[in-house]
Write a structure and sequence with these properties.
single chain; 5-stranded mixed beta sheet; alpha+beta; Glutamine Phosphoribosylpyrophosphate, subunit 1, domain 1; 399 residues
């Protein structure tokens, strides 16, 4: 991991370069100004203070390095403080977990759909250029974030899906593979199949067949979902890998913003299912005048509520990042009314997390519950850390 000394050395020069006098045409808006006065009381010097650069992501942005020296937020932060384009730096960051076969929720080695096929979604937004691109249900490309960037840069479109997204990727030069499963992701898929249908898919190490509990209420008999959640409870897969997403946003020393999200979506999903990650305003949104927001967790909740766009609008109204994120969680809670989506307390039986940064460099990570993944990733000039998420509700989704 990059040391604090390295970060301080890297960012000191960036901070000096970003601090510009007021007379510099085209300079980014400052977060504060100060003057020194001559003995006669007239202004002598006006100094513009730069934004403190920040990169924020879900916990995958901290936990995975793919055998290298940096995690995602460290790589992205290094890029934005060394003059890389803000979106290029963030995508270079998320490429680290995308290519890490031990991260079962993203890119290469991600958990497949119900048929055992890895289908990936990704989106990106470039704040200064007001551009965006996305792909959904793409197969065979380890870094869908880069394909989303190609959609943004090479086409007039924002979203390309399915087989056509794969063909687009091949046409513009990406390597397309027949199968992105690793031995580990295929082994986990087989375990899921056995738990869903133990009458036909037998556990080679088991002692018998387990019958489904047909006496459970209908809304609790979802063998596909229950089988996946049981694997989380049994420690076979991380909760983050079951929902399977990394969102990464950042603000540069000059106040420019961008964001990227990449995911395999819900593990064992219905083939062709697209969650929130590829949909602008749902799983991720950026406004270069205001801030950036992204999410992990139940994608359908963010699709229904356009949660990330809502967060940006709350920032525009003057709310701090934490308050804007909590307001989006309240909206999700209010609109969750189906019995199958409620726990015994009448609260959502799922988790959602938001990662928010505004144009001034203030940031926050919030969640519906402090359960499962309880931390997120943050990188500043002090280095990368994993702060606690701020929960909206007590307990957990199953409590």
């Amino acid at each position: 991991m990059t040391s604090r000394r390295d970060f301080l050395r890297t960012t000191a020069a960036a901070g000096l370069a970003a601090a510009t006098p007021l007379s510099n045409a085209g300079a980014a808006p400052a977060i504060a100004e100060s003057t020194t006065l001559s003995p006669g009381g007239a202004p002598d010097l006006l100094i513009r203070r730069a934004v403190k650069p920040v990169v924020i992501a879900d916990y995958s942005g901290y936990a995975f390095k793919n055998g290298g020296p940096e995690n995602a937020v460290e790589r992205a932060f290094r890029g934005i403080t060394q003059g890389e384009d803000v979106l290029d730096a963030l995508i270079a960051g998320v490429n680290i977990p995308e290519l890490d076969p031990t991260e079962n929720g993203i890119g290469y080695g991600a958990l497949p759909n119900a048929l055992g096929v890895v289908q990936l979604d990704a989106s990106c937004m470039h704040g200064p250029k007001r551009r965006a691109g996305a792909v959904a249900s793409i197969e065979g490309v380890r870094t869908p974030s880069l394909v989303a960037k190609a959609v943004m840069e090479l086409t007039d479109h924002h979203l390309i899906v399915g087989r056509d997204a794969r063909d687009f990727a091949r046409d513009v030069g990406f390597t397309v593979e027949d199968d992105l499963n690793t031995p580990d992701s295929r082994r986990l898929w087989m375990e899921w199949r056995r738990r869903v249908d133990p009458e036909h898919w037998l556990d080679p190490n088991g002692t018998g067949r387990r019958r489904r509990d047909e006496n459970r209420p209908a809304h609790e008999r979802d063998p596909e979902l229950l089988a996946g959640l049981s694997m989380v409870r049994d420690g076979l897969i991380r909760e983050g890998s079951f929902w399977g997403t990394i969102n990464c946003s950042g603000v540069t020393p000059s106040g420019d913003l961008a964001g990227v999200t990449t995911t395999s979506g819900l593990a064992w999903k219905i083939p062709g299912r697209v969650g929130d990650s590829a949909i602008l305003g749902a799983g991720m949104y950026v406004d270069n005048d205001v801030g950036a927001a992204g999410s992990t967790g139940r994608g359908e909740a963010n699709l229904y509520n356009l949660s990330s766009y809502l967060i940006i609008e709350e920032l525009r109204r003057g709310r701090a990042p934490k308050d804007a994120g909590l307001e989006a969680l309240r909206r999700v809670q209010k609109n969750t009314v189906e019995r199958r989506l409620l726990n015994a307390r009448g609260l959502p039986n799922f988790n959602v997390r938001f990662f928010v940064v505004d144009k001034q460099g203030r940031s926050a990570g919030v969640s519906m519950y402090r359960a499962g993944e309880t931390k997120y990733a943050l990188c500043t000039e002090q280095g990368s850390t994993a702060p606690d998420l701020e929960p909206l509700l007590p307990g957990g989704p199953d409590a």
